[in-house]
Amino acid sequence: MFVVGGGNSAVEEALFLTKFARKVTIIHFEEDIHCERITAEKARNHPQFEIRTETVVLEAIGDGIQKLLN
Asked: What's a Pfam family in this record (predicted)?
């Protein structure tokens, strides 16, 4: 599962999503995520979490949420 963004809301939501996904990847276009220090530490130390910085999403292809749920 991917979450695009590196602020508090994105990182907190991504941490929440680790309850439902085997792996969650944050994609952020800047050098580092910009959230509260404790939230960043939780993200960096979480075994199901990956942070990809200096990365831009060019396209997302899929057939909707139904595919994810089935």
From this structure: Pyr_redox
What are the tens digits of pLDDT across the range 2-58? 999 999 999 999 999 999 999 999 999 999 999 999 999 999 999 999 999 999 999
Backbone angles phi, psi at 40, to 5 degrees: -60, -40
Q: Is 60 among the domain residues?
A: no
Residue 67: count other Cβ atoms within 10 Å of its Cβ: 8
Residue 38 DSSP one-character state: H
Strand 49-52: give its sheet, edge to edge. Answer: 2-4, 24-27, 49-52
C-alpha dihedral (18, 23, 28, 33), degrees to nearest 10: 50
Q: Decide which of 59 and 53 is more confident.
A: 53
